[in-house]
Amino acid sequence: MDFAVLGWEDVAFRLDHRQFAYAGKFVVPSGKAAVLAPDAPPIEAQPAPREGYACGIVAAVSFSADRTDAATLWVRYVTVRSDRRGEGIGPRLLCFLADRAPTREYERVQIAVNNPFAFEAAYKAGFAYTGASTGLAELVCRRPAGPLERVGDDEANGDNDEAPTDLADDRSGSAYREGLDVYRQRDLSLEERRFCERVRERGPPLIVDAPA
Prior knowledge:
- This protein is of the alpha+beta class.
- 24% of the residues lie in helices and 25% in strands.
- It has two domains: 1-106, Aminopeptidase (3-Layer(aba) Sandwich), CATH 3.40.630; 112-206, no CATH class.
- It has helices at residues 89-100, 116-124, 153-156, 173-184, 190-202, and strands spanning 2-11, 30-36, 57-65, 72-80, 108-113, 128-133, 139-144.
- Strands 1-2-3-4-5-7-6 form a seven-stranded mixed sheet.
- Helix 1 crosses helix 2 (116-124).
- It is globular and about 45 Å long.
């Protein structure tokens, strides 16, 4: 698989809604990054959104600059093909994008997540809960742009209550549990509730290795 930034703005393609969540959001021009199968054609050879589905895309992320803060890049949507979910591809793609954000003079990357599984994926990509939420009740998570400095697994990824500020705003166990507790107050499915209980007891997950 190849990880690639397809463009920082005005990229659009059509994903098969039977295979991808949020498929319709990717026809809107914006920045896009993707995980591509070895036989995937280049983005310029992909069909236009009105002409057919994009080929060879395993996962994709849509992003754009914050409307009021030019130093902040917002991840808008993340999707992984249904047959490849659960492999950690989404968090690695988020890391890949965040590592390259400084090339466009971004200083931080933010994402708003609406369920505990997406919250966990964001944490695996080095994001941390800010304590804020959007008008759609999504929890806002943030991380610095650029490669994260690993300061040791116990400090960077473990369950401790001190925040290593060179990694993210707050990677502490208390901030992580605070975010999960917001979800636990909602009408969750049994699967989501059990997941929250399990990972809350464990603490923040390890940060995945970013693709080269």
